Structure formats: structure tokens, C-alpha cells
Amino acid sequence: MYTIEDLALTLSQYLPYEQIAKVKRAYYYAEQAHDGQKRKSGEPYVTHPLAVAEILSELRMDCDGLTAALLHDVIEDTGISRDALTEQFGEGVAGLVDGVSKLTHLEFNSQVEKQAHNFQKMAMAMADDIRVILVKLADRLHNMRTLDAMPAHKKRRIARETLDIYAPIANRLGMYNVRVDLESLAFQAYYPMRARMLQKAIHKKYGQQRIKDTQKLEDTIRSELAADYIEASISVREKHIYSIYQKMDKKRRSLGEIMDVMGVRIVTDRHDSCYRILGVIHALFKPIEGRFKDYIAVPKSNGYQSLHTTVLGANGIPMEIQIRTEEMDLVANNGIAAHWAYKVSGTSNMPSNHDRATKWVKSLLEIQQKARNPVEFVDNVKSDLFPDEVYVFTPNGQIIELPSGATPVDFAYGVHTEIGNTCISCRINRRLAPLSTQLESGQTVEIITAKNAQPNVAWLSFAITGKARTNIRHYLKDKQRENAIVIGHRLLTRSLNAFKTNIDELTTEQITQVLSNHQLATMDDLLESIGKGRHVGYLVARELFPNIDEDTLVTPKSFKVNGSEGMLISYAKCCAPIPGDPIVGYVQVDKGIVIHHSNCPNIQDHLSSPERFIRMAWGKEIEEELNISLIVSYINERGAVAKIASSISDTDFQVSNLDIIERGRVSRLRLSITVASRVGLADVMRRIKAVRCVEKVTRETIVGR
């Protein structure tokens, strides 16, 4: 049985005597506090915090972190206050214990709101002191190792939570060993049958003669390296089972298609030796094309550095070979925890992964501050926990790390928030490309900005990083309020004109009374509410002037559409009006003004609220490009569709979709096209009608009817 003396012996390898004494004192304090308490397994409760401290001692955690690990359940389970811990062990330890205690009852499979709120608490605790999450990860790892004592339903809940949250965080912090242990234990607990079957299949495929082949492989590589006077340690390993399962599941591959089930790790003493070893390996085994990655020149965002290459072994089985220095190996295995190993040894050349992890945690703070609620916060952070990454370059050679699937919009926000907010297009490897293009490692990305540009709501459909999504939503939220106030001002002014007055002539008493009626704080709040359709301008005007006879009201002027009103004036998809069409507006709650064609049948559905209708007119200078649909009837002859498409291919009109909706001797197709006016529409229809096989062209005013 592991004891405090065993822990003290481990700590003596890197901590001074007085710090070990403090850790031992914390153990005896915890032992007394937990006296009489038992774990589900029947063991004394104090064995758990001792095991957590043991895990952290293997990571060379500092004195305060170890002390907090031993005391991490004291506040939660024994009633001892934070003040009492401060008095005994100092504010630093008490703060860590309090931070871990707040994370004790995270339940990630509960309702969404609670799950999001708990994860937000974890992120904020991490931002306060990164050691909080290290203690929590060690706590979770020991709980996973002793999971058998728990009932089946709790096993599955804890295992799912571990796979969804704790293992990805360990990975994001570069803690490979902890992540692998958490994933393997959670996989076996959550999918016990799949784990057994996969392990059996791996043993059947690779198990025969494995020990003999492994030894032979090690000897071959060692002798080749010795011939080149390169010193290195070599270990052959099998990829951990959950990683194999993930690749098979996500990429829909069989076990035989997974290229790195067997792996070789070569650890050397010098940086340049890594590249010399790579040359030896490629001379010895045939490398598989496209499977080489240089994470030494371009480290991962969690600080990981290594050379990766996949080769065909002597028996034809693909092997991934990782080549790194001893320092890189320590960082690769322990991630941010390697920071404390360097700190206690006094080494000045400390790994950069601590700074990288701190930068990531700080980015969580930025996301949290701009997120509207915990659910949005979690949604925006999820992509940052995704393990795969791409590395792209700015035009001046700076490396930007992004999650797999990231786009130029994510890149723009990764460089700077203001660049993201003002980007209009991009060049990838000097060629213009859409902002929705998925980036690949090694590309050079240049963002083109414009002073008056602003984020587009459509970006949310392809931006994936937390920083990009949060900033886009935050900007649009602020911009929507500005737009709503402007539209609300126009709508209320128009309604007040019917009463032969305007907003500037309203008295303080009138405004105060209306704000009080609707429980609003300021005039801007009222205008925003009118602009968003929550209140109706005409009804607010009636409240302001309740005694005026309706027969004396003047008919208000038409509301002019200029094409630059922002996101709270939209065009109905059912009738797709374009400049020149007769139009009417309907004020819809939270959507603002929706513009319909005057003959649109759907406006009949709104006749029960006539006060929400607005007379609309197009502005003289409007230049609004809008989508419309044309229905083309044509003789179904060879090349007919190509002829129709080419009839407008040499114009400025953009075809966004072409869909054949009926086949026969006379077929019909729907052509979605962008036009700016009825004149442009007439030109398009004339060109299509000129095609010999076309019989009829009509504008589709009601989609789906």
C-alpha cells in the first residue's frame, strides 16, 4: 500500500526538505480531516488524495500544487473553511483548493445549461491558476483507475464526461501520458465490448511473433544508428486502443487501413541528430508518401515537438516513427506539467508550452467575456479542444496555428480581432479564394481588408474557432442594436408624422410615461424594440397622443428602401421582390421589416395585424443585388441545359443554382440568379427566350407553389 513516506521519497529527488515537510504536514491534516470517511471500495478516504499527489509527483509538481492535491476535498467533504486552510498553509494553497472544490461536482451529461455553466467555471478556474486543472486531471485519473467500485450507470456517466471534456483538455495542454490513460480507461468503461473486440483483433493481426519482431526491429535500428555514431534510446510501442478506435470510427476505416498501429520512438540528445536519424530511417525503410510531419520546425499549439514519418516495416506493416530530443520527449509526455520539472531544476531553457497553454487559457477569458451565455461559450470553445491542427503562414512568415477545418475568417481573427472584423476577401498562395475555403498546412494566407467592412452573419456557417465565432456574434449583436435603433427611429418618425409631429417635439413626460408602460430604461431601448418589431411604431405613437381623433391623422409617406439599412430589413424568400416591383413591408417580431411583393399571397396571413404593415417604395439610387428564381420550360433535346446556361454566362449576372424539376419531352428547370433590377431581369429573360429550344420563361414568385 502506497504511503506518505513513499511519496516523500519520490519528492526528495527534486524538492528541498522544508517543502517536503510542508507536503507531509498537509497529508496528516487531510488524514485527520477525512477520519472515518471511506471510499466506495472500502478504503480510507485519505488514500485518494494521496494517490492524486503521487500522480502529480511523477509530473514533478511544485510544493503548493502537491499540498493542494492532498487537501483538494477538505473544503468540500469535511466542512473545514478556506480561511482555516489559509491560516495553516497560506493563501496560495487555499486558493488552489477552493478552485478545485468548485469543480468537484461537474456533471457534463446533465441538462445543457448546467453542463455549460460548469464548464465555464472550469475554464475560469484554469485562467486563475493553471495548477487547478492539473490537480483536477490527476483527481479524475485516479477516479478512473478505481472506477470498478462505482455502479454501472455512474461508470458510464463518468467515462463519457472524461472522453468529452477531461481527455481533450489534457491533450490541449500537451499532457500525452495523462490523456492516453484517461482515454484508455474511459473507453474500456464506456464501450467495454468494443474495447475487448478491438483488442482481440489487434492481438490477432499484430500479436504473433510480436515480441521477437519488436526486438529484431530495435536491434536493426540501433545498429544502423551506431554505425553513424548517433546515440539514441529506442522503444517500440503499440498505439493506444482508443486512438485506433477513433481513427476507425471517424474515417470509416478497417483495422488494416490504420497506418500507425505500431510505433517506434527514438529519443536522442541533440536537435540536429533528429534529422540525421530521419535520414537513416528513410534509408532503412521505405517511407509512405505524404506521411511526414516536421513538428520540430513547426511545433503544435500545445508545445509538442517531434519528427513524424510513417514507413513500411520489414514485414510490410506500416509503422509511425517519432524522433525527438530528451527535452522534447519530456514536453511531449507531460505537456504544461513539464514546466514545473524545469522550474524546480532551475533550468533556464524552459519549454514554450507553458506560455502557449497560458495564451490558450487567456483566449478562453476573451471568449467568455464576449459570449452571451454559457451555452454559446461552450459551443465556441469546443473547436479549440479538437486535437487536429493546421499550420498556415502570414505573408511575412509568421506561423498561425488553427484547428482542422479552419477557414481564412478563422485565420483573420487569429492574427488580430480588427483584421477579422474588416476582412473582405483573401489570397491563398497568392491566388484569390473564397473566405469559406478550408485551409491546409503550409499555405500562405493574405487577408484583404477594407476600412468600412464588417462581419457577415454568413461567416458563422463556416468559421470554427472560438475566437472567430465569439467576435462575429459579439459584433453582429452590437451592430444589430445600432441598426435596430436607426430603423426604429425611422418607423416612429414616420408614425409621428401622421400626428403632425416628430420625435424632437416629444415632451419628457410623454417619453417617461411610454418607457414606464413598457418597462424600458431609455429612448434608445424603445427605438431598438420598435426596430426589432417587438413594439409597433403606430401603436407607440397612439400611446404618446391618446386624445387625437384618428380621422385627423395624415397618411404617412412610404418607407424608402435604399439597400443599406443593415440586417433588420430583409426580403421575403416566398416572393423574392427586386427593385422596381411593387412592395409592402411587414414588421415581424425580432426580424424587423420583411419586404414582400404586393401580390404575394403570404401577406394575407398577416392581415390580422394591419398596424404592422408599412407602405414601402424603392429608393432612386438603390443598387441591391437580390436572388430570384426563373422557371424555364424547354424542349428536352441534347445539350439544351448547357445552351440555356451559356446564354447568360457572358453577362454580369450570377447563377447560384440550376435545378431540373420536371423531365419529359417538355422539361422544366429552376434557375436561381442574382439581379439588381427589373430591367436586369427583363434582359436575362430575353436572353433565355432567345435560345431555340426554350418555349417559356416565367418568374417564380412563390417558391414551392
UniProtKB/TrEMBL annotation:
Known SUPFAM superfamilies for this protein? HD-domain/PDEase-like, Nucleotidyltransferase, TGS-like
Q: Which GO terms describe its biological process?
A: guanosine tetraphosphate biosynthetic process; nucleobase-containing small molecule interconversion; response to starvation
Location of the ACT domain? 629-702
Specify the TGS domain's residue ranges. 388-449
Any one GO CC term of this protein is: plasma membrane
Give a yes or no for keyword Transit peptide in this entry: no
Single GO term (MF): guanosine-3',5'-bis(diphosphate) 3'-diphosphatase activity
Q: Which reaction does it catalyse?
A: guanosine 3',5'-bis(diphosphate) + H2O = GDP + diphosphate + H(+)
Q: Which domain of life is it from?
A: Bacteria
Could you tell me which pathway this protein works in?
Purine metabolism; ppGpp biosynthesis; ppGpp from GDP: step 1/1
Q: HD domain spans which residues? A: 45-144
Q: Give the family this protein belongs to, as stated in its UniProt record.
A: Belongs to the relA/spoT family.
What is the recorded function of this protein according to its Swiss-Prot or TrEMBL entry? Answer: In eubacteria ppGpp (guanosine 3'-diphosphate 5'-diphosphate) is a mediator of the stringent response that coordinates a variety of cellular activities in response to changes in nutritional abundance.
Q: What protein is this chain from?
A: guanosine-3',5'-bis(diphosphate) 3'-diphosphatase
Question: Source species, please?
Answer: Marinomonas hwangdonensis
